[in-house]
Records
---
Amino acid sequence: MDKFFYQLALIGYGVAMVGFFIYLLRPQHSVSRIATLVLLCSFSFHSIGLGISWVSLGYFPFTTIKSSLSFFAWLLVIIYLIFGWRLAVLGTFLLPLIVGLMLLSKVVPAMAEPPPLIKGFWLNLHIGFSLIGDALLALAFCVGIMYLIQERHIKRKKLGGLYQRLPSLTSLDNLNHKALIWGFSMLTLGLILGALYAQWVRGHYWAWDPKEVWSGITWLVYAVLIHERLAVGWRGRRAAIISIIGFMFLLFTFLGVNYLLKGYHVFK
Amino acid sequence: MKDKKIVLIGLNHKTAPVELRERLATSNNNEILGQLIQLPPVKEALFLSTCNRIEIIITTEEKHEIIIKAIKDFLAQYNQIDLNEFGNSIYTYLDADAVKHLFLVASSLDSMVIGEPQILGQIKEAYRRSLEQRVVGPILNRLLHKTFSVAKRVRTETELAHHAVSISYAAVELAKKIFGDLRGKLILLIGAGEMAELAVRHLLGSGVKDIVIANRTLERAVELSKEFNGRPILLAEISDYLSWTDIVISSTSAPHFLIYYDHVKRAMRQRKNRPIFFIDIAVPRNIDPKLNELDNVYLYNIDDLQDITEINKHVRQKEAQKAERIVEEEVIRFKWWLETLEAVPIIVLLKKKLEEIRQKELSKTLKQLNHLSNEDKEAIEVMTSAIVKKVLHDPITFLKKREERPKVDLYLDLARKLFNLDEISKEEDYHK
């Protein structure tokens, strides 16, 4: 039953994505409003699906790679609904990511019951905060791309294309900044909770598991960026580039580690 | 009676560097005008002085070499500059060429930024001053009114007038795409000029509150500050202000850069990379073009701004051609008017009018007096023409007494009006 709703949601997200691309070509409020409406319906289906999974499984469905991808996409939709009402063009950049995550979630083979280790309240907090952090950093990534496009237009003095659609550099930079700060805080909280949970169930905070190592690296990339932003005043292009690079690390930690490396975080 | 000539003497941003223009420019336009009209060969005069140009238009009956020399000498003496220093920067135009130049200037075709609207207002102001001092006569009156209507034609019949406005509009739009909200931003205006001031006005209209004005002379900076409600500073202080300001508009005629790459690189560290937007209106450039390579620094010069406006180069050239055609057309018409003015001087017109009246009345009367012999008729004819001659004698002598006539050809004008001579000259006037 839940699969049916996920399917509906995926189709809906696809339609909304097309809508947001049309919005890029024809910047009328009616277009973005319809796309947002489609997105909202799909989001409801998605939420219903998640609810059904939760009830039938007995725990929140984000403990496997398949389900966490879907949950990640769900969080991104919420983020769009929060920021997109003032910045509809954000949809054009977020929705491909959402659709991609949903498709990936569909393709990834389902896994049997996860080991009992990965259940429990504290673990849920660890995963939840990490994923919220990831979603906010994904926002920083999208906004970073938007910034680079807009900056290129203005620097090269070619004011066609997306120039008219994209908002001002300062507002993009501010949004990037906010997303980074909040995303990084959530990610840090998630990591700390994970370490505490590991200490509790496994007896040590840090086991040099590949996922842990890569999370650490990702965290360091973002930590450097935020430090430079706050202390040195890195802004604009450089901050945008680093938030894109950071997100690449994040994606690798999230997906790559599971398939390329081995460790107890790997839930294939 | 000698022919009247229109002579235009001037210099502008193309012929003279700013240092020279500043030394020749004066805020005391009335005084200059008053002294100009004292020069013996000058009949009518108009003096225009803006930051980009000085134009002196006079009418005279003397040879133009004499009047040009007199005015050059006067400028040298009044401004206490050696003639050799600015002689080469001066251009002179006669009659139709002078008319054409004035039309071009007023239509803003000779401006640094084509289509900027302020020059017309400045010419109107100059004309008002000449009117107040009563130093305009029939020729300049006609010329200036024609000038205003030509400028209006160019403005309404071509797209050029939108060009300047659209440039400053594009600058404001860019600023908004960089900063988002312009409220609370600080502008630094370096130098002055129609285009820069237009851009500043647009920015101030978009919510920018604070403006700092730098100029070579503090006096001019203070003057502009009053106008824009800003703070005056010296050129030397610019680099200190780079760490504070958000939008820098530069429009000086300095022959070298005023803002260098290293200045801004240093300033960016101090301003913690907050974005800064440079608009370089000056030719040659005031701001090192390399700046644009710095992160969070955006530099647009006047050509870049022209390129991004909707009215592109191609359209602009076509419109400029159209405007030139309008100007040429109006010059031809004005030339016709001038020719009738020269070919049919007032005295001829006056004689012609009275002769016409005499002939008309004579033939009317003689028709009814058929009993008169031919000899009698001839006697009457001789008598009437003697009356006309006697009546005309004193006015003509008076009008001919050039040396006693005031500079403004008030009496000529009066005679025209008194005898309604325009009615007659109209028959020969191709214009209207």
---
Amino acid sequence: MHLIDRIAHGNRLAARSGVEKVVFAIGMLALALVLPPWPGAAVVLGVMLVATLVVARVPLRAYAKLMTGPLLFLAVGVLPLLVSLEFGGAWLVSLAWAPDGIELALRVTARSLAAVSCLLFLSMSTPMPQILGVLRAVRTPAVVTEVALLIYRDIWVFIDTVGGIRMAQASRLGYRTLRSSYRSLAMLGASFFGQALQRARAMDHGLQARNWQGELHVLDDAAAVSLAGLAVVVTVQAGTVAAVLAWAAA
Amino acid sequence: MTDAVLAAEDLTYSYDGGAPALEGLDLVVRRGRRLALVGANGAGKTTLLLHLNGTLRPRGGSVWINGRRADYGRRGLTTWRQVVGLVFQNPEDQLFAGTVAQDVSFGPMNLGIPIAEVRARVDDALESLDITGLRERPTHMLSFGQKKRAAIAGAVAMRPEVLIIDEPLAGLDPSGADHLLAVLERLTGAGTTLVLATHDMALAYAWADEVAVLHGGGIAACGDPADVMSDAALLHASGLRVPWVLDVDTRLQAAGVLGPGAGPRRSRADLLEALEALRQPASSSVPQC
């Protein structure tokens, strides 16, 4: 979480308009799903890797680390596609390689990887406040953006709180045995809940002091959407489609 | 009493099922003055502050704003909070937005003023707290001192007549504390009435024009800092102590080292200056070479 956020605020595209990045990522995501997996998804994946690692200069190590989760998930998900169950025979049920298993698995993998690369680009190039700005601009109900904002804000407070409690417990040997670990974890949960309630009350007082009327209006000084930026986005997307079509025709 | 911008009269309050937190409390905040509200932990400081901006409603007594009895209706509270800005001890309780500038803009946006005016106020507030460089910084990536200044900027941007700050220096390092004091000086210069709630006696003694001692849910003493703070017995009973500057100054005068001086020596700097002045005649009268 800290990693994504730090990169989102520090990458080379951080200051660019959120609209450009959202249009780019969502557009490419649509292409990844619509174009044929080969070569479509492969081209999308390539473009997104270049956009994230070269253009936005996201460090490769961080990217690999964040890609690991989805990759593991994908690997587990794809395995069943490789095999098929056959009924009958000596064992009643037997496992066999599925007839189109490999091809199907490859297709799913390519498409998923391409889609994940689009979302990773968005989350690593676009700070949360910008994404919220875009959501507000497209008239997402205020309830949704406000809850998202408060969650985003409170994640950091809560990470610190939980980390603090855990450290305090560990330094008094709260995690020495499995038994004490369970007990400490339960106490952490209970105390965290209490603190969350207290925090809500304190936040309410804090907002009231600044004349909160029920909505969290703030000044949104987002970078303006530049025509040049949007033109680049659309060109890359059109180029992707053209490349895929040409490749498929050849 | 005509210059009272904010006053509390016979305030009584108790949290549900608890002993009274405030009991018959009277307090006057005079326009343009610097008031330090000193009290031990649990003396009721925060409870009082929450009454002074209308967050809590007293069980008895009343609050007066610019000579008018407080109105707890929606519109009344809106004007009230425009007049009285409150900054909480923990800046985490106040910062909610993604970036510093957005957070500071929250108060002004709620005043329903034109966007250009909001923008100007945000710029001014960031400028006067010296955090213009942190504008676009996400609030969770700030140091504690920076968070504190961002939280104060959020209140300053509403241009309150009275700014109340709970424990302004708690948790700040010495240079951060000096920095914040300079900011407060600027706010006073701009005509803002300041109230600091603190148990830092040295700060209260050095900074305030007036001191009010909060004890047992009421004001045990209030007035000129030199008068109030020389009452060691009263301070002791309130869980407080005589500020060290005053202690040392009294002892030095008793020992005949220092004279009474032009006025009370309030800070480390005043005291050092007086001691330095003792040395100077000797060194200047005997040239070394």
---
Amino acid sequence: MAEPPVSPDVLLERFGPHPAYTPPGGWQDESRNPAERLVKTHCCFCGQQCGIQLKVRGNQVIGFEPWEEFPFNHGMLCPKGVKRYMQGGHPDRLLDPLLRTPQGFQPVSWDQALDFTAKRLREVQEKYGKDSVAIYGGASLISEKSYLLGKFARVALGTRHIDYNGRLCMVSAGTAYKLAFGVDRSPLPWSDIPKAQVVLVAGANVAECAPITTDYLWRCRDAGGKLIVVDPRMTPICRNADIYLPVRPGTDLALYMGLLHVILRDGLERRESISAHTSGFAEVADSVRAWDPRTVAEKTGVPPESIERAAHTFAKADRAIAMHARGVEHQSKGVENCLALINLCLATGNIGREGAGCAMITGQGNGQGGREHGQKCDQLPGQRSISDPDARAHTAKVWGITPEEIPQAGYSAVEIMEAIHRGEIKALLSACFNPLVSLPDANFTREALEKLEFLGIVDFFMSETAHYADVVLAGSLQEEEEGIGCTAEGRVIHIQKAVDPPGNAKGDSWIYCEIAKRLGKEKFFPYRSTREIYDELREASRGGHADYYGITYEKIDENMGVFWPCPTLDHPGTPRLFENGRSFHPDGKHRFVVTEWRESGDPVSAEFPVYLTTGRVVSQYLSGTQTRRIGGLVEQYPNPRIEIHPRLAEQYGIKDGDWVTATSRRSEITLQAMVVKTIRPDTVFIPYHWPGGRSANRLTHRTLDPRSKIPEYKVSACQLTKADGPPDWFKSPPEKAAIWHKGKS
Amino acid sequence: MHGYEFYVDPSRCIGCQSCVKACEECETHRGKSMINFDFIDRSGTTATAAYVCWHCDEPTCAMVCPADAIKKGEDGVVQSSLKPRCIGCSNCVLACPFGIPKIFPELEQMMKCDMCYDRTSVGKRPMCATVCPSQALSYVRPEEIAHRREKPTNVFYFGKQKITTRVHMMTPAETDSVLLDVLDYMWEDSHVTASQSQ
């Protein structure tokens, strides 16, 4: 609904982000008291979901203690995990539901806020139709909340349009794995990594985005394993790579087709495994014939000799693993990139065995679990397809409705924002999503938000997107509701409730149920606890690929997690998906899928000659709604910088620390240069965690992969100019101002 | 903890600073990190190094202290200065060959890594080595470290000064050369290697 009610400065003053530097009460006060309880739970800040113990006193999280017995991370934590507890008692925490007024956001009673929300949703649907309302969910939500959101959209609202910010994460991998394997999950437990003889890390800044995985890679090397890293930037793990392939942004597909070309040219494929476990090999073999090392070198900027060496190293190993993340997935051919890596593994017999296979490194807090049970626009619980009549019948039965009442597939996350922009979708209820910072082409997103007739937000802090809201419903942090998550490995874990939501804030699941009640759908949402929601989720997932029926909270606790599928209560779970020839396709085979080269959606040109790629830094998480409020993390990397190779910097007369304006076909931002030899000289990198004038996503574009609908964050074109001096945002950035005045009591 | 040793391996360090943050949790110096963390040369490399105190067998810091404020315990751990004795003179800061001690002017006291005395004395591992995601900082049994590629040493030479330490440094496995510039790995149409064309 148009612009924020009051000025940005007023909103920032009241709602932050204010970085918290100390535990509740300061370093020397409350947090010094012994914990009353140590709650064994998990970190909320990436797909690894490390085990951690939260120290609790009263209704306050006051610290943490490593959880050394948890088998994934053995107590290890990255700085985000170490500082996650600083969200407890945070001064910016939303403690009441808020209604927009001309004077700003005003606290109201829950009845007022919920009545208003239901009334507006109903009015919009009556005026413009069911599908004029959309739901945004988040992959950081526990699976109970994401399941509930999927049901809420389809049963309480009856809209087709629900999608989630996991659409910005690993959906290219998920789509590729469904095509090749019929199932969307990393096929390997991480404990296989040290057992591989070769690990190929493709487009994954493991050190910063999945830090604990580093230890698995190092242990692989300790055992004599070789490490191949593909990245336009020399990320920290590249220092120990045996082969480093500095691929030009957006050309990964050519590289992987080239590796397969060399393997087939030299007869290194494993024929026995190919004929026993796969279909479609001949077509893929044909498709890579043109991709000889010289052709690939011209496309990718990787030397022909390195391509030959990498292909031989990978193919000659008895056990090799190809791991990949957003670097290959955030492209308009993200699905093809993942398929090409899968083809490499299938051709070399690296499938279904210990220490061999492919693995996606899912990025978000509950990135794996959050996509399995119904908040994706085209899926129903259990990873079922919403267009499959059997799946609709099963789900409808669990939900107590008819299959016809379940809407068909709706728009994906970016498509929803585009439909808002063109006036097709009029109302949005968004939970755990900050699209103004995280979607590409941020100015377009802002225009769209201004056009909404109703925007409702469920969140625990005031995100930048929430500034545009009509109502903000004060929800819960991860540690404030009991539930489950699923890690990057496919391990289902138990998120323990450590404390109640503070003040008048409420658990998210209560909020959706109360809105459903006000929409006249109370009988479909009778839950008194998240455990009851989970028991329904287990039934809803039963018989699907992501079958959780045999997984209970207690079973997770006893086993330190259970890998799905787990169809019965006495089933031990499935750490290795394709072991013993198991396949999820009806013909029992994994599929080679042909990949075709095409150019990226925002090509470099004479006017925009430099590649721009975006990503994360280790101290920040996604849109920064949480991590820009934690002082120790803000101080580690306060503002985005633009990484430039000295050769490129010299062309523009740019020195380290100079202010540089990067301009794309959409917009421009001005940041300080970080002149480093650790990036290709035709490419610049900007991390994306910040809003406004620091937003890398003002520059990125909305080209999507046609199948996964992921935006092409990793490849944009830009031009650089040296700026005269600091931009406006630098003169009064909220976090920075707080650093200057910080007091470390 | 009996039988456990502390190992530092910069080749494993990914620069995440988890140790720096976790050190603030320690009971003896809450809110103050005693980790020494450096980007070696960020313009040229992502290499980083995180160090704890090396806990010298004959601590230089203690030898130069005019107030006799720095003590080494029977466990070989060199403690922060004794508050009643420390005169905040910084002799230790200047003399330590590893650059470990830190002066806190507001406290008029030198403080340093005490290998998480509060934790190790009750059977817990030091906070930094417990959380370190790459195990560049490790607190493990010697037989576990023997599986590593790199090998431990605890003998250091600073000019004529030979120092032996409680904490071990992992030294790199044999390598012929290390190339640090992306250009050295790239292929360009000109066939001129990029670093030559600079």
